Amino acid sequence: MFKLGLLTAAGYLVPKNGLSQVASGGLPVSPPTTPFVEMMPVPPIKETLDGLDPPPKVMPQAGEGRTRPHQALEMFPPVRFAEVHQREALHSFHPELPMQTIWGFDGMFPGPTHVCRYGEPYLVRNHNDLPEDNGGFGLPSVSTHLHNSHTPSESDGFPCDFFEHGQFYDQHYPNVLAGFSKQFPPNGDPREAMSTLWYHDHRVDFTAQNVYKGLAGFCLLFNEHDTGDESTGFRLPSGEYDVPMLFADKVFDPEGLAFFDLFNLDGIIGDKLTVNGKIQPFFPVHPRKYRLRLLNTGPSRFMQLALSDTRRPQQILPLMQISNDGNLLPRPVEVESIHLSVAERVDVIVDFSESAGRSFVLLNRMEQINGRAPTSRIMPVGASDAVMRFDVVLPPVADSPPLPEHFYDLPPTNANSPEVVARRLFRLDRLQGQWTVNGRIFDCETALVTPREGTAEIWTIQNTSNAWQHPVHIHFEEHQILTRNGQRPSVVERARKDVTRLGFGETIELFIRFRDFLGRYPAHCHNVVHEDHAMMMRFDIVP
Amino acid sequence: MKTMTRKTALAALAVAPVFGYLATRKTTETKPATRPIRREPFRAGYFPNVAMQTHEGKTVRFYDNLLKDKIVVINFFYSRCGGLCSPVARNLAQVQKLLGGRVGRDIFIYSISLDPGHDTPAVLREYARNRGIGPGWLLLTGRPEDVELLRRKLGFTDPDPVVDRDKSQHAGIVRYGNEALQRWAACPGEAKPEWIAKSILWMDWPKAMKKGA
Fold first, then answer.
1. Maximum distance among all alpha carbons in chain B?
2. Integer Cα distance of A146 and A199 in angstroms
3. Which parts of chain B register pLDDT below 50?
């Protein structure tokens, strides 16, 4: 207790941890900030519209940065619309740091939360109003990826489909389940439902800078089971009890302005953890169940999160993990901690009902001293980084019902099924300081592989290094890990994912389908610094 | 004991704004004035103003003469590198052609030798002649400790000490940036020359600042 209090009062995460890289280069160490002085904000829900002027068209319009026709606009005509402006704004990360310029969707960090429903196609008119004369990190040229929706290629935010200052881009989200066109017509495979998505800039070579500058937010996708209403369907905590939490670690210069190390190609570790844009905030809660949607946006940090009672720090509050990369698991699983690589999402149900009057610190127990990989050490509770604090101080209210015992079954992954038409090997490697996949450098124009639409493949991904770790993200359909280093993975990790961590020297074998839409998609390391230095490959889904 | 007092005080603070729960977001709607670009701390952190010798035999200061107010392309190489450095050198020669008259006007290419003991200005001059290196592209050498400092500051390093000692491992990356805008990025030197040239132009001056416009 004493140690925890001392460390957090000092305002650093852990003074001995996470600072060596920047400190050794003569680069900034963040000024101290007092923890738990500001309430964690919850991003507002994005308001939707009944239409747009001019209306969206299949072919790109005047002023639009899109270069290809919409392939599914007429099949899934949008019933809801939104208009988003990416722009500069002033933001406060902490009351003891100055107001400063960020880039945000609608001028906010995190951006507004899009709330979508399966069966309700959605179209977002996405404007690039970022300043052309930006100084410092960030490039006012963008491509927005909705991670990891079942989106046609031209709306997916392919890194090289970027658009410039003054342009807009209509992004069409059919909100349809995978497999709708052939295997499970007309509505797709219900086992492929997704819940917690996020959107972020994906501009080739500048993703790390632009996301660090604030271009990220949540998108929640509901259906008839995960309804967004705790009195129906799975009856998961909803409304103000359903809380998205976006983690981002940052470094601030001596003047307190966010600093991005533009000359670091290894990966960037911030010494300040922010949650929904605030450094070490607090969040008052009622004594009842909450659904927390946890998202690690990096740039490069691996997290291991646990909730510890401030009065009895060794007492870890159990969490019910209900999802993996935003996909509901077959059943809730009780865990003591949550592992999050960059871009991974996990939804947990936390039950504060027995905890009125108590406070819980959310700890990051993963030791990481540079952007390459975490050390293998899980820090003791008393020496872990305090991310934020929950205070169970709000009055008692009605609780949501007990959790269901079952969500969705997993889609089958039979390697001998006729749908599996190819096995491929991808080796993540490094040559003369350049990242390579199978010895090749990323090229916007060239697909490394061309899976056929309507088929499945088994991919083996190898991390040849014992010095680096890589959270690998494959766009489009979710995949399932068959083996990790030849072993069957844990029940949680076996479920559908879109980001798979490759530890030192690890080999992953996964099952992935390519259905419904055609065109180019990337697969890449989601340590966004690695991603920006070409640790990426393009695959094209072909007829 | 002091810690406890502080925590108690913070807990009290935490309770106070509870009734403001719904007013959770405060981001100003007003457009901020463009922040003046603070070049000095950036320069001090990354760009040591060391003396370098060009293949043309001139002595120049790294920041004052080579970076300040320019769009620049920087890579590391060495003349005895052989086949390993050739693809990047060939690519940069193409890039120089693709960027046309701007190279030498407001865009400059710098290739810094990792083998300064061997790569004297005379050796570099010979290397430049054999490869058709034109105006606006300088091959640079200097004191070994200065070259090493530049390599570290500009991030041409590897965390593995064995790899870091292997000069050829630093010859694959091409950095590009606009010093005045403090806009910087990097790409693989073995990317297509058209792509490298396009990347460099992402650093171009905003319309309002365009030189000669």
1. 75
2. 4
3. 1-34, 212-213
Residue of A nearest to B183 (CA): A136
Residue B23, token pair as written in the block: 């007013």
pLDDT in tens, A401-424: 999 999 999 999 999 999 999 999
Structural domain including B186 reads 39-204
Cis-peptide into A77, omega within 30 deg: no
Domain ranges in chain A with CATH number 2.60.40.420: 2-33+235-391, 80-222, 420-541
Chain-chain contact of A266 with B153 (C-beta, under 8 angstroms):
no
pLDDT at B17: 34
User: What sign for the dihedral angle of Cα A57, A59, A65, A71?
Assistant: positive
pLDDT digit string (tens) for A282-304?
999 999 999 999 999 999 999 99
Span A91-131, pLDDT tens digits: 999 999 999 999 999 999 999 999 999 999 999 999 999 99
How close does chain B come to A182, measured CA to CA in Å? 38
Distance from CA of B71 to the nearest CA of A (A): 14
Q: Return the CATH number at B131.
A: 3.40.30.10
Q: Which CATH architecture has domain A80-222?
A: Sandwich (2.60)
Residue A45: closest CA among chain B residues belongs to which residue? B25
β-bridge pairing A289-296 and A345-351: antiparallel
Q: Which one-letter DSSP state was computed for residue A303? A: E
Question: Which chain B residues in 89-108 lie under 8 Å from chain A, judged by CB atoms?
Answer: none
CB contact under 8 A, A133 and B34: yes
Cβ neighbours of A41 in B, within 8 Å: 24-26
Cross-chain Cβ contact B184/A262 below 8 Å: yes
Distance CA A237, CA A230 (A): 5
Tell me the CATH class for A2-33+235-391. mainly beta
ipTM, 2 dp: 0.91
Nearest to A147 by CA among A536, A531, A523, A537: A523
Interface check B212 vs A, CB under 8 A = no
Indicate yes or no: CB of B207 within 8 angstroms of CB of A132.
yes
Examine residue B212 and state whether it is found in any structural domain, yes or no. Answer: no
Q: Which of B15, B22, B24, B42 is the best residue to mutate to test the A interface, defined by the most A CB atoms within 10 Å of its own CB?
A: B24
Counting the structural domains of chain B, the total is 1
- Give A-chain residues touching B86 at CB under 8 angstroms: none
CB A237 within 8 A of CB A349: yes
Query: Is B32's CB within 8 Å of A89's CB?
Result: yes
B152 contact residues in A (CB cutoff 8 A): 25
Nearest to B209 among A133, A209, A389 (CB): A133
Task: Tell me which of 2.60.120.430, 2.60.40.420, 3.40.309.10, 2.60.120.260 is the CATH number of domain A420-541.
Answer: 2.60.40.420
d(CA B117, CA B108): 24
